[in-house]
């Protein structure tokens, strides 16, 4: 069975990253200079996602639509979608990929949208960054306000440069969320004898049950 611990951790933190990660492994910190461009990107785009969820002036339908757009601006969704499949990204068929991509996206967005009422004006603040290598930066932030009693440290791994940064993973309480998500999905497929359709069906059934 698919483990939902990752989604709980993310939702409980009021974080917005469906952001799993990218096929680059857990980051090993190489202490180098900060990157103001990456920091500005996270400050603007991650805060936008938080603000959309916390906006009480929009209808739920409007909020979901804008949230969807904001996620595209913040995260490298295609790369994350591929990453969470782990070793099975090499063997998935075009037909399976066509079914998995929308199922995963809906699953990931629902994690946050299901808890819309929990968002009450959280504020993100960048506290620094570490350049691992050019175009690969860990941006450190805190999230406070709303229902959060103490500022929560959250790290965002971003790739890119100039105006084209994208988040590829988020670290909360020492755990890189997408890497954990990948472990959950790969375990589900392994337990099904390598049948990727089992994971796809689980995601789709979860959505169908939600729609009833």
TrEMBL record:
The signal peptide annotation in the UniProt record is 1-30
- Which UniProt key words apply to this protein? Signal
* Record's keyword annotation contains Signal: yes
Q: Do you know which InterPro entries this protein is assigned to?
A: MlaC/ttg2D, Tgt2/MlaC_sf
PANTHER family tied to this protein:
INTERMEMBRANE PHOSPHOLIPID TRANSPORT SYSTEM BINDING PROTEIN MLAC (PTHR36573:SF1)
Name of protein: Toluene tolerance family protein
Taxonomic source organism: Caulobacter segnis (strain ATCC 21756 / DSM 7131 / JCM 7823 / NBRC 15250 / LMG 17158 / TK0059) (Mycoplana segnis)
